[in-house]
Write a structure and sequence with these properties.
The complex is a heterodimer. Chain A folds into 3 domains: about 30 residues; about 120 residues, YycH protein, domain 3-like (Lipocalin); about 120 residues, TATA-Binding Protein, CATH 3.30.310. Chain A is extended and about 100 Å long. Chain A has a 15-stranded mixed β-sheet that branches. In chain A, about 25% of the residues lie in helices and about 40% in strands. In chain A, a hairpin with a 4-residue loop joins strand 13 and strand 14. Chain B is of the alpha+beta class. Chain B has 9 helices and 24 strands. In chain B, the strands form 3 sheets. In chain B, strands 11, 12, 13, 14, 15, 16, 17, 18, 19, 21, 22, 23 and 24 form a 13-stranded mixed β-sheet that branches. Chain B has a 9-stranded antiparallel β-sheet with strand order 3-7-6-5-4-1-2-8-9. A two-stranded antiparallel sheet of chain B has the order 10-20. In chain B, strand 11 and strand 12 form a beta hairpin. The longest helix of chain B has 26 residues. Classes of the chains: A alpha+beta, B alpha+beta. At the A-B interface, helix 1, strand 13 and strand 15 of A face helix 1 and strand 11 of B. Strand 13 of chain A pairs antiparallel with strand 11 of chain B, so a sheet runs across the interface.
Chain lengths: ~280, ~425
């Protein structure tokens, strides 16, 4: 037997085998965006309609693999209130359920560790214009270091009331549970915040279900014959754990209906997550 | 030289090929199905090991012995069950308190079954077609079984209906042989501490009368958080499982439908919201529970069924650990039972498990005087108004320690006395 020739044949064989293996692995691991056809969309709308579910929004068509994200809640406790607001002023403090309440001057602050609420009553708001009210909210946010970068802003002006809502986002995905709101009218100013101070994407990405599948889950969830109007369907992250300040948030499809209810469908498993 | 290069290249290519094959292999999802989703419980479950006595006493010629070796106790239980299964009783009678008292005289084996076991569950052990279980109402809760060899009778105490049954056999030679050849190193000679006029006890209560030996036990701790294989036992696909660290220090793993909470004190809590209706009975549910415990790594030889509840088609099983002697949980923040499993629609709805891997490292040897003195001290400290109905030996589990204790019972109250120093650990109030 020609051992040298045999080696050459084996080298070529293994080289070809390795290339094939490499290409197969690359193909398996390559993320493939899923697209819905026009026919698919039509069929979905039909099924939803048969179940008294009307879509008043477009169905997002492209989805890409998403990882879990590690989130840590921003902490609002007694020391936060004392250092940033009360300082050396006289104040009254008491407990009400899970909240610690501070009262000083005409102001009230409520904290429970993961959420912050501020209330101020004053005549100074009486003569403020809408833009001045808006500016007051902005200044409050800046002065007390509440300002955030990754936000989606929504401004609502209704009569004498000006409301500015900030929703936490991360790489264009919403982070459910991360929000702040400033509300001001002629008599008082209110501000609330619940935020994730740290949001870090993990490495391993995983395919997510498409929006159509999530919408069809509504048929399963809906138990009555009442009309349900879907206002929005959006992909983002969900961390609904009141007894935890850190953990992993999971990708979800958030379906918002016209009456304000929210449904969360796990974008990995397609299962309904708790909470409305 | 050229040949050397070719050999090296071939070697490199073979290694690369092995690596790439491995990468390809792990690209496919593994273990798609876990036991949680299996609809049937096909695994062979030895229910006989799960329903077994907490304590076994043997009486020979006026002397009473406490079986101090768990394996020997189990062997007596097994042989008794085999006898019942292979012999048909001649007669079944309902007997009175006196006959029950006399059953504990002469040559006998006395099995104490913890908090009693439902008759239906015992049917799986006593499988004889014509056995007495077909003739006694299945709603009985068996608390004690006494095999009286001299009388050729087996006595059964039904705790719920407060009835005693006697089963008459023609011959008990097989069991007599076992008793006559009792291995003395597996048992402790006992004496009754009951005396007429003594206010401490209401009946015969036996305690070891010679030097007594009890194993030192400890828990071999397991770190679940770094063990992905452990998570795979609960979740079908762990790549969709997220981890949450609760403010209390607990770690929670969930896929949205099932969740697993790991407590710092060794408890694990599993909840499953998936419910696919399937018919089940209590025996199937018990098997399912035991398979679950085995799957998650609980040593089935170290546990036994302690209590059982049935409500609206849901079955809840309570298990306890045993290592020659049973365990009692003393920490207030913990559950009374180390293991609780609820089965609904044939699926595990929740499980709360104090995860223990019991090991022994030697034994304590306690002389009779050193055993009796602290007990007397402890009994004085209690200043109990009512006489005690029972006094047994066990392990009290407190903050990871297993303390040998006297377990005293009176009118549904329980107290624990440290076996070494007589100090009252918990007065049951």
């Amino acid at each position: 037997m020609n051992w040298s020739k045999a080696k050459t044949v084996l080298i070529i064989t293994f080289a070809i085998l390795n290339v094939l293996l490499y290409l197969t692995i690359a193909k398996i691991n390559k993320p493939q965006p899923q697209l819905l056809s026009r026919q698919d969309l039509y069929s979905i709308e039909e099924v939803l309609l048969q179940n008294n579910i009307i879509l008043k929004t477009t169905i997002p068509q492209e989805t890409e693999p998403m990882p879990l994200v590690k989130v840590t809640r921003e902490i609002f406790d007694e020391s936060f209130v004392l250092e940033n607001f009360i300082k050396s002023q006289k104040y009254e403090k008491y407990k009400e359920n899970r909240y610690t309440i501070f009262k000083f001057e005409d102001k009230t602050i409520k904290v429970d560790g993961i959420s912050f609420y501020y209330f101020e009553k004053s005549d100074k708001f009486k003569d403020m214009s809408s833009s001045q009210k808006e500016e007051y909210v902005q200044n409050f946010i800046n002065n007390y270091h509440f300002k955030e970068i990754n936000v989606q802003v929504e401004k609502i002006s209704q009569g004498k009331e000006v409301k500015i809502k900030y929703f936490q986002t991360y790489k264009d995905y919403f982070i459910d549970g991360g929000w702040m709101e400033g509300k001001i009218d002629d008599k008082s100013f209110e501000f609330s915040k619940s935020w994730f101070g740290s949001v870090v994407m993990e490495k391993a990405k995983k395919e997510v279900i498409n929006a159509a599948y999530a919408l069809l889950k509504l048929v399963e969830i809906k138990t009555d014959a009442k009309l349900m109007v879907v206002k929005e369907i959006k992909l983002g992250y969900y961390f609904n754990w009141s007894s935890a300040t850190k953990g992993e948030a999971v990708p979800v499809w958030r379906i918002t209906t016209q009456d304000g209810n929210r449904y969360y469908i796990n974008a990995y498993t397609g299962n309904f997550e708790e909470g409305k | 030289m050229k040949e050397k290069v070719k050999s090296l290249l071939l070697f490199f290519l073979v290694l690369t090929s092995v690596y790439l094959t491995y990468k390809l292999w792990i690209s496919f999802p593994q273990n798609e199905l876990s036991f949680i989703n299996k609809k049937s419980t096909n695994a062979k479950v030895d229910i006989f090991r799960i329903i077994r006595p907490e304590y076994t006493f043997v009486g020979i010629q006026g002397k009473v012995y406490l079986v101090s070796n768990g394996d020997f106790s189990f062997s007596l239980w097994e042989k008794t069950a085999n006898f019942i299964n292979s012999n048909k009783e001649e007669k079944i009678n309902v007997v009175d308190d006196n006959s029950w008292g006399n059953a504990q005289k002469g040559t006998f084996i006395r099995f104490l079954i913890g908090k009693s076991v439902n008759g239906d569950l015992l049917k799986d052990i006593f499988t004889n077609r014509d056995s007495w279980f077909r003739k006694i109402n299945s709603d009985i809760y068996v608390e004690e079984i006494i095999v009286n060899i001299d009388k050729n009778q087996i006595f059964v105490k039904d705790a719920t209906n407060k009835k005693f049954y006697s089963l008459n056999y023609s011959n008990m030679g097989v069991l007599k042989n076992i008793i006559e050849n009792l291995p003395k190193d597996e048992v402790s000679v006992c004496e009754s501490v009951y005396e007429e006029g003594n206010t401490y006890f209401e009946k015969n209560v036996y305690i070891p009368s010679l030097t007594f030996s009890i194993k030192k036990i400890y828990n071999k701790e397991t770190n679940f958080e770094s063990d992905h294989r452990f998570l795979e036992k609960f979740f079908t696909n762990i790549s969709v499982v997220r981890k949450i660290t609760e403010n209390s220090g607990c770690t929670v793993y969930t896929d949205g439908l099932k969740s697993l909470r790991l407590y710092q004190n060794g408890y694990i809590e599993f909840y499953n919201t998936i419910s696919e209706p399937s018919s089940t009975d209590k025996n199937f549910a018990l098997r399912k529970s035991v398979v679950f415990l085995e799957e998650i790594g609980i040593k089935v030889d170290d546990i036994y069924l302690m209590d059982f509840k049935e409500e609206k088609g849901e079955y809840t099983f309570y298990f306890n650990y045993i290592f020659d002697y049973p365990l009692r949980i003393l920490q207030k923040e913990m559950l009374d039972f180390p293991i609780e499993i609820n089965i609904s629609n044939g699926n595990i709805k929740y499980a709360q498990v104090l995860y223990l891997d019991l090991m022994s490292n030697g034994s304590y040897l306690i002389s009779h005087a050193k055993l009796k003195q602290p007990l007397a001290m402890g009994l004085k400290e209690i200043n109990w108004r009512e006489p005690l109905s029972d006094l047994k030996i066990g392990y009290a589990y407190y903050e990871g320690q297993f303390i040998p204790v006297w377990i005293g019972e009176s009118n549904n109250k329980v107290f624990f006395i440290n076996i070494f120093n007589g100090k009252l650990i918990y007065n049951g109030v």
